[in-house]
From TrEMBL, chains A, B:
<keyword id="KW-0413">Isomerase</keyword>
<feature type="binding site">
    <location>
        <begin position="185"/>
        <end position="186"/>
    </location>
    <ligand>
        <name>substrate</name>
    </ligand>
</feature>
<feature type="active site" description="Proton donor/acceptor">
    <location>
        <position position="184"/>
    </location>
</feature>
<feature type="binding site">
    <location>
        <begin position="42"/>
        <end position="43"/>
    </location>
    <ligand>
        <name>substrate</name>
    </ligand>
</feature>
<comment type="function">
    <text>Provides the (R)-glutamate required for cell wall biosynthesis.</text>
</comment>
<dbReference type="GO" id="GO:0008360">
    <property type="term" value="P:regulation of cell shape"/>
</dbReference>
<dbReference type="InterPro" id="IPR033134">
    <property type="entry name" value="Asp/Glu_racemase_AS_2"/>
</dbReference>
<dbReference type="Pfam" id="PF01177">
    <property type="entry name" value="Asp_Glu_race"/>
</dbReference>
<keyword id="KW-0573">Peptidoglycan synthesis</keyword>
<dbReference type="GO" id="GO:0008881">
    <property type="term" value="F:glutamate racemase activity"/>
</dbReference>
<keyword id="KW-0961">Cell wall biogenesis/degradation</keyword>
<dbReference type="InterPro" id="IPR015942">
    <property type="entry name" value="Asp/Glu/hydantoin_racemase"/>
</dbReference>
<dbReference type="GO" id="GO:0071555">
    <property type="term" value="P:cell wall organization"/>
</dbReference>
<dbReference type="GO" id="GO:0009252">
    <property type="term" value="P:peptidoglycan biosynthetic process"/>
</dbReference>
<keyword id="KW-0133">Cell shape</keyword>
<comment type="similarity">
    <text>Belongs to the aspartate/glutamate racemases family.</text>
</comment>
<dbReference type="InterPro" id="IPR018187">
    <property type="entry name" value="Asp/Glu_racemase_AS_1"/>
</dbReference>
Amino acid sequence: MDNRPIGIFDSGIGGLTVLKEISEQLPHENIIYFGDTARIPYGTKSKETVIKYAFQCIKFLLSKDVKAIVIACNTASALAYEEALKEFKVPILGVIQPGARATNSTTRNNKIGVIGTTSTINSYAYQNSIRALNKNAEVIGVACPLFVQIVEDGWEDTDVAMITAEKYLLELKEHEIDTLVLGCTHYPILRYTLSKVVGEKVSLVNPAFETAKEIKSLLKQKDLLSDKMEKPVYKYFVSDDPEKFRRIGGNIMNKNILSIEKVDIENL
Amino acid sequence: MDNRPIGIFDSGIGGLTVLKEISEQLPHENIIYFGDTARIPYGTKSKETVIKYAFQCIKFLLSKDVKAIVIACNTASALAYEEALKEFKVPILGVIQPGARATNSTTRNNKIGVIGTTSTINSYAYQNSIRALNKNAEVIGVACPLFVQIVEDGWEDTDVAMITAEKYLLELKEHEIDTLVLGCTHYPILRYTLSKVVGEKVSLVNPAFETAKEIKSLLKQKDLLSDKMEKPVYKYFVSDDPEKFRRIGGNIMNKNILSIEKVDIENL
């Protein structure tokens, strides 16, 4: 048993969708969340830079004495997960492997679409992970860089969202995919629009859900689950202005975010 | 006379449009350009963070012995220019003041629209600068956060660009503006789409052009112009992968960018 918190990080607020899943499946665990809002987004940046940023995030979480770390950001999971496993001793989980496993148990025709940031798609992390589990899978990746900003602006139900989605997803529709991986934490918020564009028969996979299931098994297996029964404590840290995070994050979490602190992540 | 280089910085590649104007109006000046590609964009970040980043950029340029500095980024000009003037002794020019002067000599009906990033518009820097010169000006600011990504994706002539522009500019059209300030270095690339939406009678003001004129007068006035007649030397520095900058920057400059170096801007 271990009552230390779980650490979660993301380039911004998107990772709160992962936190939410974890809090539902592990309701007694304390959580430390870090959002790197001063350097968001990661999805347009190089592997070298994303690894540097991810390592800084992990070191910050370790300074808060976390017992395990979840990389909630798809880009950081795609570009920095393997390197993080080599660098740090603490148990670390990314969203790619859980997402890939969920995808393979969902598809029937083995034709799979993956959407994500430019860096995530260009890394081939999802494509390779899915094919490593299923040699017959045909995986088509499409970078959708406008989606994050559309979500951040609250434009998810506009004609701009619809036309942009139609443009990005055209190739996937032509390939007659039956499964679409939402390979960025912002995309589940576009779920309705995406489903309308690809058609209701296509299953949408949200890796956040599967990641929460896997962190639970991981903690159980390593005997690291908390034995407390009281209400857990969540602490939030960001690298830019806490107020914007409080406002938008509160909407995602459907409750007020009380404890937020600003951290100088570049000079820890 | 002073043959040291002019320093220019921006959050990324957008400032190359300013460099281009300066190189046309001051063809014998050496230039050092810094693009903060590891932390782009600035336009969604807080004033405190943008000031911190701008100061780091200025310190880097000073380490290269520049004789004057141009803040090519509209967001950094809006949020950090005043503070930079107080902090540093080197002559510094932003794009807001030159843009405001050009706007006031352009408008006939004193109804002016300004478009820019969320941070630029919320800072009221353009609105206040224009009204400080012209008490009768009615200035309406609209944040257009999707435009940068649309330009970065090369989507400037698509239906997505058109519909997005129609949504953002609706209020400005209703106010019957006769002048529109392109308050972000990426926006001149959308000029055709923007002009189609607001109508050809509306004048588009590009602050980059006016900024180049003002840096020329400033250097002349302070006797800092170069007296060299040979081809000038341009050196480029970025905080993320130089190759992406080389590729996209080369398109903006219409020539190959040869000398690019990566800089660890956080730990100078």
